[in-house]
Amino acid sequence: KDLRDALETFQQTFVVSDATRKDYPILYASAGFFKMTGYSSKEVIGRNCRFLQGADTDPEDVAKIRESLAEGKNYCGRLLNYKKDGTAFWNLLTIAPIKDEEGNVLKFIGMQVEVSKHTEGNKVKALRPNGLPESLIKYDSRQKDRAAMEVTELVQAVRHPHPNMHSSTHQASSVKSSIGEVNEQLLIKSDDRRGSLGASRTDQMNEGLPKRHRSSGFRSLIGLDKFGKSAQPEPIEFIEPEILMTRDEEMTEDGLDELDDKERLQEIRRGIDLATTLERIEKNFVITDPRLPDNPIIFASDSFLELTEYTREEIIGRNCRFLQGQDTDQKTVQRIRDAIREQREITVQLLNYTKTGKRFWNLFHLQPMRDQKGELQYFIGVQLDGSEQLEPIQKRLSEKTEKESAKIVRATAINVDEAVRELPDANLTPDDLWSNHSKSVSAKPHKVHSNLWKAIQQIRERGEKIGLKHFRPLKPLGFGDTGSVHLVELRGSGELFAMKAMEKSVMLNRNKVHRACAEREILAVLDHPFLPTLYASFQTKTHVCLVTDFCPGGELFLLLDRQPSKVFSEETAKFYLAEIVIALEYLHCQGIIYRDLKPENVLLQKDGHVLLTDFDLSFITTCNPQLVRPSRPPGKRRNKPLPPPFFMAEPVNTSNSFVGTEEYIAPEVITGAGHSSAVDWWAVGILLYEMIYGRTPFRGKNRQKTFANVLHKDLTFPSSIPASLAARQLINGLLHRDPANRLGSATGAYEIKQHAFFCGINWPLIRDMVPPPLEAPLEFVGKDPDSDNKDALEWDELEAGTTFVSDVF
After folding, report:
1. Residue 533, burial from CB neighbour count under 10 angstroms (0-12, 13-18, 19+)
2. Mean pLDDT, to the nearest integer, of 3-13?
3. Confidence bin at 201 (pLDDT 50/70/90)
4. What's the pLDDT tens digit per position in 437-466?
5. C-beta neighbour count of 697 within 10 angstroms
6. What are the pLDDT digits (tens) for 123-177?
7. Please, which contacts does 531-534 make with residues 24 or more away whose CB atoms are closer than 8 Å?
8. Where do the annotations place ATP binding (predicted)?
9. In 10 A of CB 227, how many CB atoms?
10. pLDDT score, position 783
């Protein structure tokens, strides 16, 4: 009864089946399952889920599901299913086993999500002539990321049923819930479903033209799509938390408790990549590729799908002419064709039709996009529904309305142009995508005389190109968002390195090619004692590999966890944080926004100093370093000397992709307001809090709750753990929800380094400081004494990516 009561609080569509009986009969089905499929309880309970299969269900998909069930493993995949009335739909099925303490599978949870509207469907296998996917974004990967999060909640409910527990989706249904508050108060609401001119024009006049917009797909991915949309947008308001002291027992109210499973504990620390900037632009637009026959659509926004009523599967690979109808003015159509032929922009009004035949008056803007060589790359087509703004006699938009609205569609096209440049050119061949990984690496000034570089150079001097064969695997070190990492030895030298290997097919299928390429580009420019050195990069038939420094001290996260009280002293926290601030200052000077600071990504070198790693979620932009000369404050005596000038370097551009780690993500990333390097200073505040208090300040029982806490929850400091006023003030300054007022936003690392918390830090000589003593000392890992006898550790290409098997869960 407790289990049933607990499951009824979830609004997801799912079933629970009995893994101990033949054919896995269904024990429980949610109300959403009955609603989605059209079947009744009597027709479902006690049966196997195969009744959802039909004539066009792919037997290979079914075989994969059966294999996962037989082996008691997780599964996530899309297959064609059928409702009771025979309607076919694309079902994203996620299966998770429930095991007892001995590892025996007792139950299976099968969660279903209808993704017919947004999936590429059968087009997922469609390829361009160059061998790359036809669609610019792989949407199944996005849906799988969300499904993995939601099924974790269900697993927790089945393992530890509590009738009073509430799921994140159940909480969302309440107007007064914290998630509701997120949507109603802090997220910019979208225009109405048809993207009306009235709402857009009001948006422009009231708020000015926004630089970035979120997409409805983004709200869906973080679980905030359960709310209705309003036609009247509201500005983002950042409500600053009160600084509170709290008793220890109050700290567990919103955080993880003893019932949390390892899946959730792993999920909360894993880097997430929920959406690119392109996917978060909430406007009606498509991107076409004129280099392909018939200039087909390769990207369509969620808003465009809502406006036109088509599914993504129906329009990817097609020309936009399907929007035309009986009364579409062919002279206007010809003007668009002429603009395409002449590769120029144009803005026109014309009558278009939705899938069901509804007419809408479209203000259409076409804009060519060119690559760095000036050659035509894509066309961007932006639509704005002006049906409600037509002049009654002329049946057109007035000249004034057209002029105002043209500014909106052109601004949208500019935003799309900027966003799509973050992605690799779809016309590149698969080999071209990874060409940078095959380039030789040059030694940087500060490491050119190291033994590691000398060992690498000896191979090059023999005329050999460094590859996988030159390295012997010793042990796996872990895995990141886009690859596995191994400890390797350069054969014949005894020198140890860390090798990150990324499987090419996984990068393509999970929208991570641009992430992997960005990491290679970033590592190539780093030359800093607290950042990794790139010694070599190469590719095999299946993988791309990066060879960097091996840090025998392991992760700061593990060192923190080994401390008896799971916290550092303030002196220790100050030391590590100071070096991290220095590393971030260097990155920002290079125009790099890190975006994934957390203890797991801070490694410890053999001398005890830090090294930041994992740059696959980082953003590369530009930076204008400045020497700032302080001005004399008004009313001060002129004979008092001015402070010396200081150096400031912060990246100048913003991004709007949804990346980071759940507990460390800044508010502006969640709200979709566009973010700058200030997100790194927010993460510094979270990290300092975790080092001093042993946990992060905004952790929730699920991802949506964590995000709601980041946006709303008061910042509290446990009274049982002593912390100086300076430490609490620094944390509070760094965790300012408004990035414009956040410490570090005005003058970068300079103002952080001047904070009283860092009193005693000699910044120019910090690399020569001796790390403070620890209660549990630093433990070093390295080459096993008997590793020379382990013939089994000789690898082939596939072994370079062994940890890719199940990182969705």
Report:
1. buried
2. 74
3. very low
4. 999 999 999 888 999 999 999 999 999 999
5. 22
6. 888 888 888 888 999 888 888 877 877 787 788 777 776 655 454 444 433 322 2
7. 531/583, 531/586, 531/587, 531/611, 531/612, 532/611, 532/612, 532/613, 533/444, 533/447, 533/452, 534/441
8. 500
9. 17
10. 75
Q: What's CA 183's distance to the chain center, in Å?
A: 20
Q: Note the pLDDT of residue 194.
A: 36
Has domain 432-549 been given CATH number 3.40.50.620? Answer: no
Residues 278, 421: Cα–Cα separation, whole Å: 9
**3-class state of residue 715 by DSSP:** strand
* Per-residue pLDDT, 227: 32
Angle at 765 between CA 764 and CA 767, to 5 degrees: 115
Domain limits of the chain?
2-127+137-159, 284-421, 432-549, 555-632+642-768
Task: Kindly give, in sequence order, each residue whose CB lies less than 8 Å from that of residue 485, ignoring residues fewer than 6 positions away.
Answer: 476, 477, 478, 479, 498, 499, 500, 501
Q: Give the pair of three-digit tokens for residue 735.
A: 């965790």
More reliable by pLDDT, 111 or 805: 111
Yes or no: say if 606 and 695 are a contact pair by the CB < 8 Å rule. Answer: no
C-alpha 279 chain-centroid distance: 11
- CB under 8 Å to 461, separation ≥6 — which residues? none
pLDDT of residue 267: 74
Q: How far apart are CA 688 and CA 550, in angstroms?
A: 25
HEC string of 321-369?
A: HHHCCCCCCHHHHHHHHHHHHHCCCEEEEEEEECCCCCEEEEEEEEEEE
Q: Which CATH superfamily is domain 555-632+642-768 in?
A: Transferase(Phosphotransferase) domain 1 (1.10.510.10)
- Rounded-to-integer distance, Cα 433 and Cα 521, Å: 13
Cα–Cα distance, 295 to 287 (Å, whole number): 10
- Tell me: pLDDT of 698 over 90: yes
Q: Which residue has the tokens 């969300």?
A: 146
pLDDT band at 178 (very low <50, low <70, confident <90, very high): very low
Convert the pLDDT of each residue in 634-682 to its tens digit. Answer: 765 666 777 788 888 889 888 999 999 999 999 999 999 899 999 999 9
Q: Which H or E element spans position 479?
A: strand 471-479
Query: Tokens standing for 298?
Result: 């390769």
Which pLDDT score is estimated for 235? 46
Same CATH topology for 2-127+137-159 and 284-421? yes
Class in CATH terms, 2-127+137-159 = alpha beta
When pLDDT is cut at 50, 70 and 90, the band that residue 237 belongs to is low
pLDDT in tens, 724-743: 999 999 999 999 999 999 99
| Residue 297 confidence (pLDDT) | 96
Q: How far apart are CA 5 and CA 589, in angstroms?
A: 55
Strand partners, 378: 369
Report, as residue numbers or ranges, the catalytic residues.
596
How do residues 274-315 score in pLDDT, each as one tens digit?
889 999 999 999 999 999 999 999 999 999 999 999 999 999
Selection from 249, 176, 147 nearest residue 703 by Cα: 147
Fold of 284-421: Beta-Lactamase (3.30.450)
Residue numbering of the annotated binding site for ATP = 500
The end-to-end CA distance of the chain, in Å, is: 28
Q: How far apart are CA 577 and CA 769, in angstroms?
A: 13
Dihedral sign of CA atoms 299, 304, 306, 311 in order:
negative
* Dihedral pair phi/psi, residue 170, rounded to 5°: -70, -40
Range 241-276 burial, b when 16+ CB lie within 10 A, else e: beeeeeeeeebeebbbeeebeebbeebbbbbbbbbb
